[in-house]
Design a protein that fits this description.
- By secondary structure, this protein is an alpha+beta fold.
- It contains five helices and eight strands; from the N terminus they run E-H-E-H-E-E-H-E-E-E-E-H-H.
- Strands 1, 2, 3, 4, 5, 6, 7 and 8 form an eight-stranded mixed beta sheet that branches.
- Strand 3 and strand 4 form a beta hairpin.
- The longest helix is centred in the first third of the chain and has 16 residues.
- The chain starts with a strand and ends with a helix.
- The structure holds inosinic acid.
- The site of inosinic acid (IMP) has 14 residues, from strand 3.
Length: about 190
């Protein structure tokens, strides 16, 4: 059976990618399962660049097809901040309670129509031999006025989905995976692997 490595240490992401690729005849391994332990500096300026850096580095180390993702939140009114710095915004160790409160504060007085935002996810597939493919998908919404919902993680409690009338932290994991930037991007990269 063919092997594919997914360059992440995040178990939630592993579960999602295994589920999405379950109909392909491949075994999906995490970096840990592939015996790889490296710190990769994500110094790209776009989601695609960071995903490519991760996928290529691991592919070169293990010689197998490697997937990697990079994601974040873009808020239009804040010139697409926090963007590629979403995890590092206000410091990696700062709680999302504080980060979310700060973003809501920065949008104080900003009307509904200017609160548009999106979650972005780029996924890169690096192939032995050097070629790379990338896909990018988004989930569109806007920034709410307070945190709502207990599911999800990160910026989900402030990410309001007008079509659903709730935040992404109020969706179940299954509901979110169907419409999320990451769910869509992982399903799109699958077409590139076939
Ligand atoms: P990474 O791609 O795993 O490095 O994620 C980057 C950061 O973007 C996360 O740490 C979160 O701050 C944010 N982010 C990405 N996707 C989501 C999401 O689905 N919900 C909430 N926050 C997200």
């Amino acid at each position: 059976m063919k092997k594919i490595i997914f360059a992440t240490g995040n178990e939630g992401k592993m579960k999602e990618i295994r589920d999405i690729l379950s109909d392909l005849d491949v075994k999906v391994l995490s970096m840990k399962e592939a015996g790889i332990n490296v710190d990769i500096v994500e110094d790209g300026t776009t989601f695609e660049e960071n995903a490519i850096i991760k996928a290529k580095t691991i592919c070169e180390l293990c010689g197998e097809i490697t997937l990697a993702d990079d994601s974040g939140l873009e808020i239009d009114y804040l010139n697409k901040e926090p963007g590629v710095y979403s995890a590092r915004y206000m410091g990696e160790d700062t709680s999302y309670r504080i980060k979310n409160a700060n973003l809501i504060e920065r949008l104080e007085g900003v009307p509904d129509e200017k609160r548009t935002a999106r979650f972005v996810c780029a996924v890169a597939a690096a192939f032995p031999g050097g070629s790379v493919k990338t896909v990018r998908e988004t989930m569109e919404g806007c920034i709410g006025y307070e945190e709502k919902g207990e599911n999800g993680f990160g910026y989900d409690p402030i990410f309001f989905l007008p079509e659903y009338g709730c935040t992404s932290a109020e969706l179940s994991m299954e509901e979110k995976n169907k419409i999320s930037h990451r769910g869509k991007a992982l399903r799109a990269i699958k077409d590139e692997l076939k």
